[in-house]
Amino acid sequence: MGQWETKMKLPIWAWVVPAAMSLIALLPMPYAFYMLVRIVVCAAAIFIAWRQYKLRGIDAWCFAFGCIAILFNPIFPINLSREMWAPLDVGVAALFGVYAYRSARRS
Question: Which residue of 22, 30, 65, 83 pairs with 45 in a disulfide if CB–CB is 3.0 to 4.6 A?
Answer without folding.
Answer: 65
